[in-house]
Amino acid sequence: LKPGGANIPVTEKNKKEYIERMVKWRIERGVVQQTESLVRGFYEVVDARLVSVFDARELELVIAGTAEIDLTDWRNNTEYRGGYHDNHIVIRWFWAAVERFNNEQRLRLLQFVTGTSSIPYEGFASLRGSNGPRRFCV
């Protein structure tokens, strides 16, 4: 992971550096062959020209399919800030609009706001942000 690293014991003092270097190695070099094999296999099944019209998020929806959104779960696990609350008129308008959306539109809204259309297996209570557990927030 670094020059002479095999001779450096991992201690509390250097543990963070070791973990960071190990994760970087695993992500950048440790799975190169597996990733290349996966991509080659994917393109054997799916013509690259057909896939090229999608961005990464759209391709995720095409491959993973769409999950049915439980609107009650979504609403019950939403956090409000800036003076908003569940009974605020603007929030009532928001949920009324979302209720009129079809499932694909709801997934697109979720993707726009959170960066992913994936709903955790445990539901919206387990939604995660880039830095850990994070409730949907208005």
Automatic annotation (TrEMBL):
Enzyme Commission number, as recorded: 2.3.2.26
SUPFAM superfamilies (UniProt xref): Hect, E3 ligase catalytic domain
Record's keyword annotation contains Transferase: yes
Catalytic activity: S-ubiquitinyl-[E2 ubiquitin-conjugating enzyme]-L-cysteine + [acceptor protein]-L-lysine = [E2 ubiquitin-conjugating enzyme]-L-cysteine + N(6)-ubiquitinyl-[acceptor protein]-L-lysine
Endpoints of the signal sequence: none
InterPro entries registered for this protein in UniProt: E3_ubiq-protein_ligase, HECT_dom, Hect_E3_ubiquitin_ligase
UniProt domain HECT: residue ranges: 1-138
GO cellular component, as recorded: cytoplasm
One GO term of the biological process aspect: protein ubiquitination
Pathway field: Protein modification; protein ubiquitination
UniProt xrefs under SMART domains: HECTc
GO terms, molecular function: ligase activity; ubiquitin protein ligase activity
PANTHER family: E3 UBIQUITIN-PROTEIN LIGASE HECW2 (PTHR11254:SF127), HECT DOMAIN UBIQUITIN-PROTEIN LIGASE (PTHR11254)
Name used for this protein in its record: HECT-type E3 ubiquitin transferase
Source organism of this protein record: Motacilla alba
Organism lineage: Eukaryota, Metazoa, Chordata, Craniata, Vertebrata
